[in-house]
Write a structure and sequence with these properties.
The protein is an alpha+beta fold. It has a domain at 90-247: Trna Endonuclease, Chain: A, domain 1 (3-Layer(aba) Sandwich). It is 37% helix and 12% strand. The protein is built from six helices and six strands. The chain has helices spanning 5-12, 38-62, 90-106, 116-133, 192-203, 205-217, and strands at residues 137-138, 157-160, 168-175, 222-229, 235-240, 246-248. A six-stranded mixed beta sheet has the order 1-2-3-4-5-6. A hairpin with a 5-residue loop joins strand 4 and strand 5.
């Protein structure tokens, strides 16, 4: 009877432990390995877990602590940070601004009238002050409170007075002979489109939409103006149309 290939292969490999017809003798069997008890396995795992936990605690203690109020770039994610991010009350900002103007105009604080940032800041603060005296409250962000502040891009100020005519003023302050920029990417400065592109940022979406709706329903109740601030601190206003052209000079507000 012919022997098949599979059967011959099993016989040839029997000497190296492959299961074939000729099995290893008992004397040639490797000694049996003693298995650890289940209790011993559990104890070993527990010891390894405790060690890893201790190592992780040590690494964590060595890592620098990260303020959860800030992202990787160091900017606030909307959470309040005492003394830095928290919004200052309006009355407090007004008091700081009033003192700054007093110090500048009395000479206590230097004022470089050739510095574009400083004259721009002075113009904005004087417009704020003058409109407060006329019963208007500033409702836009970024109130200037320091003559040395860096300039900001956007609307100089948006103001509201329930008894005003109009109730809502959108104002750009110009010191001395400064004039509106006629060539921006959004059209002429203080034109309807230029203002609209900045309302959301300077007021927040909700307030901005309320002003847009008010202009649709009652156009005369929302006005755009240039505040001209003279060297002696007096302020006059020119009213603008939607193209930022002057339609009325020296308006009484």
């Amino acid at each position: 009877m012919r022997q098949g290939n599979f059967e011959r292969s099993m016989e040839q490999n029997s000497d190296i432990g492959f299961p074939g017809k000729n099995r290893l003798r008992d004397s040639e069997r490797p000694p049996e390995m003693e298995l650890p008890s289940l209790e011993g396995v559990h104890e070993s795992l527990a010891e390894q877990t405790d060690q890893r936990y201790d190592d992780s605690e040590r690494v964590t203690e060595e890592l620098p602590q990260i303020d959860e109020n800030y992202d990787a770039d160091g900017y606030s994610e909307g959470k309040e940070d005492s003394g830095r991010i928290e919004e200052m009350p309006y009355e407090e900002k007004v008091a700081i601004q009033e003192k700054e103007l007093s110090d500048v105009e009395s000479g206590v604080k230097p004022f470089d009238r050739d510095n574009t940032h400083e004259v721009g800041n002075y113009g904005e603060m004087k417009a704020d002050q003058d409109l407060r005296e006329k019963g208007y409250e500033r409702i836009s962000n970024d109130m200037v409170t320091d003559i040395d502040e860096n300039g900001h891009q956007g609307l100089d100020g948006v103001y509201y007075n329930p008894d005003g005519h109009p109730q809502i003023l959108i104002v750009d302050a110009k010191y001395g002979s400064a004039s509106l920029n006629p060539n921006t990417k959004d059209g002429k400065q203080m034109s309807e489109n230029w203002i609209d592109q900045r309302l959301d940022k300077d007021l927040g979406k909700e307030k901005a939409d309320e002003i847009r709706m008010e202009k649709i329903l009652n156009q005369d109740n929302v006005g755009a103006y240039v505040a001209h601030v003279r060297e002696d601190g007096t302020v006059t206003y020119d009213r603008l149309d939607d193209a930022a052209n002057v339609i009325e000079k020296d308006v009484k507000i």
